[in-house]
Amino acid sequence: MDRLTQWFSQIDWDKFWLDMISKGISILILLILYFVLSWIGRKLIRGFFRRYRTQQMVSENRANTLESLILNLFGYVMFFTFAMLILQNFINVTAIIAGAGVASLAIAFGAQGLVSDVVTGFFILLERQLDVGDSITLEQVNGNVEALGLRTTQVRDFDGTLHFIPNRQIMIVSNHSRGNMRFLVDVRIAPTADAEKAMEIIKRACEQEKATNKNIVDGPTVLGVQEVSATNTVIRVMGKAVNGEQFEVQRNLLKDIREELVANQIELPLSYLAPLEPGK
């Protein structure tokens, strides 16, 4: 207790509080600078990419990817720079870094995952495996790429879940946003209906749809009878559509085909639940 009292009595409290106030003001100024420069930097980067999109022959997804990466990199640089400046108020950061020795080796081993993430992310960008907005499959994750950073890739699942995936864990990428996409439409008619007549009607409906739908790039082609069962006959139609529009093309084509079949009195299969008999 006497030693503690003696230690406190040796402190120059006026100098201590003056030093704390000085450091507090310095940290406050650094924090204000950090937020102001971060805001200005992000605004300039976004402004540059707005002009870049209009002046350069580059896809929207590619421009979004590069913008996301630059913003990500800018954020890391700003954070670590100002973190070092704030720490410099309390400790000699330069001396610690210079004399780290074994500690730096331990940090290097611990940062292997981070380095692997950054290197993998670099090659993903270099090889253009992914772009922001692409529809992809990464093993068990299906969705659209929302952000592509140096360390992680963010994928929004179709149910709204946002997945954060470390870049080093990306082994196999299935990108559904490159090139035109195939669509299939299976048309079901009653097993007693005239399949040949139905195919002629379906063919006419396909020709009409192709003439009015600019998203169809190939076909639609009536392949013929795909399946025959006691309840229905399946006639398959196949074609190619502009990437991302294939599902809408499928829905519109199926609706138009059904309307044409009904208008030409082609019987469609009935699905119903048989009523239960009393006592069962």
Automatic annotation (TrEMBL):
MF (Gene Ontology): mechanosensitive monoatomic ion channel activity
GO cellular component: plasma membrane
Membrane-topology annotation of the record: Multi-pass membrane protein
InterPro entries xrefs: LSM_dom_sf, MS_channel_C, MscS_beta-dom_sf, MscS_channel_2nd, MscS_channel_C_sf, MscS_channel_TM-2, YbiO_bact
Pfam family, one: MS_channel_2nd
Membrane-spanning residues: 20-45, 66-87, 93-126
Keyword annotations: Cell membrane, Membrane, Transmembrane, Transmembrane helix
Principal localisation: membrane
Domain Mechanosensitive ion channel MscS span(s) in chain numbering: 114-178
Limits of the Mechanosensitive ion channel MscS C-terminal domain: 186-267
Record's subcellular location: Cell membrane
Family, as annotated: Belongs to the MscS (TC 1.A.23) family.
UniProt function note: May play a role in resistance to osmotic downshock.
UniProt-recorded name of the protein: Mechanosensitive ion channel family protein
Protein's organism: Listeria booriae
